[in-house]
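User: tokens in, sequence out, please.
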């Protein structure tokens, strides 16, 4: 086995047919990261007959006395099933890169280990998972474990909607709460529009607080992935929002009056009035909400008669699948549920165009206990998503002396 340097074209040819191919393992992504302080190279792994059997983009930075830490995003693309081959890979990496100033290599192979339903129940699993992890650990790779949240470079859990189906079938399996939020967004006057100019500026205003990357990073993603990037926005029609808000208020006022009459009806026993009392309390709550919305919608129409963009998403198309790379919304209008309608519109659009999947991106692996990411999960799993759990992250120390010295001088 040898480690060889590949050209970008050689690398792309290999990766486009690999079982675990993904857009992070492309020359386009390498070009992006080179713009933001990372060096990169394409490593190839050949057997004794000089046949290419593995490859990976690695990105790296000098961090200590010209020593480097490297990362193979969603790589290395390689078969980890044979323990001797994995051990040989580890030794070859140490020999090849350890003498070139690389102290550590991090990788997170894009290998699914379980497929689950939207409730987290396992419906399929990789029966080689334990063997793969054991092979890597025995070869010197340190495993970060089966984490549930966002402890690693890339998320270990993703929410995926299977497409290429009748839209009615997809719609019928959406959670009732999610369907109600989609309807609420539509009834509020929100429409989803595709930005044919791929202008990311507005989207960035929605994501800059939660993302550490600058606006120029997302512009470069658009530049490098070019025709494979699409940007969508949720546009609130402020005039329609006002009309619908007024209509909702009027309907609720009529309903509230009906409930009030029921409660005042002396022919109904106090026991039988209990359900009406509960409904009246909920109706009172909704009246307060609708009155507040009426005030907001009136002001919005005055200040934004042409409408206002309140949410957006960037999608990367790769391998006949669509990936929501990043999304965000204006928190002031979160109650309108534009993000739910946005996902539904993307599902409809890409299903109609014949894509296999739409990847709604990261979720967490905790499906039972309430946590700060429960809302994130609901917003994605409610579309009857399939959950993919990936194997996770591994580190291998390539030069023990340099790495130990680095840790000694960089204690926190």
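Assistant: Sequence out:
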């Amino acid at each position: 086995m040898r480690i060889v340097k590949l050209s970008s074209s050689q690398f792309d040819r290999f990766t486009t047919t690999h079982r675990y191919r993904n857009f992070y393992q492309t020359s386009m992504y390498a070009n992006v990261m080179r713009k933001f302080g990372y060096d990169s190279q394409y490593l190839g792994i050949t057997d004794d007959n000089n046949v290419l059997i593995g490859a990976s983009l690695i990105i790296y930075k000098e961090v200590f006395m010209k020593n480097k830490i490297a990362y193979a995003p969603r790589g290395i693309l390689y078969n980890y099933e044979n323990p001797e081959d994995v051990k040989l890979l580890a030794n070859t990496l140490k020999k090849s890169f350890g003498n070139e100033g690389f102290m550590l290599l991090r990788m997170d192979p894009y290998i699914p280990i379980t497929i689950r339903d939207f409730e987290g129940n396992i419906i399929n699993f990789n029966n080689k998972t334990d063997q793969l992890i054991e092979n890597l650990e025995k070869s010197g790779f340190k495993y970060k474990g089966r984490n549930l949240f966002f402890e690693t470079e890339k998320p270990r859990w993703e929410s995926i909607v299977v497409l290429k189906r009748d839209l009615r079938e997809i719609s019928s399996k959406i959670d009732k709460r999610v369907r109600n939020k989609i309807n609420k967004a539509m009834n509020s006057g929100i429409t989803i529009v595709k930005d044919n100019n791929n202008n990311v500026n507005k989207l960035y205003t929605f994501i800059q607080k939660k993302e550490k990357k600058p606006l120029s990073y997302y512009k470069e993603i658009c530049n490098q992935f070019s025709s494979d990037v699409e940007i969508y926005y949720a546009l609130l029609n402020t005039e329609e929002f006002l009309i619908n808000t007024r209509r909702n208020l009027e309907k609720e006022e009529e309903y509230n009056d009906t409930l009030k009459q029921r409660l005042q009806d002396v022919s109904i026993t106090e026991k039988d009035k209990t359900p009406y009392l509960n409904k009246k309390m909920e109706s009172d709550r909704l009246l307060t909400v609708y009155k507040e919305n009426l005030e907001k919608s009136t002001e919005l129409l005055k200040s934004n008669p042409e409408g206002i963009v309140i949410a957006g998403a960037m999608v990367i198309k790769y391998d006949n699948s669509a990936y929501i790379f990043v999304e965000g919304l204006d928190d002031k209008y979160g109650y309108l549920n534009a993000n739910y309608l946005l996902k539904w519109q993307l599902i409809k659009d890409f299903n109609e165009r014949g894509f296999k999947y739409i990847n709604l991106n990261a979720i967490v692996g905790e499906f039972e206990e309430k946590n700060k990411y429960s809302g994130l999960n609901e917003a994605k799993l409610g579309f009857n998503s399939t959950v993919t759990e990936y194997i996770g992250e591994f580190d291998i120390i390539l030069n023990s002396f340099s790495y130990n010295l680095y840790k000694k001088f960089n204690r926190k």
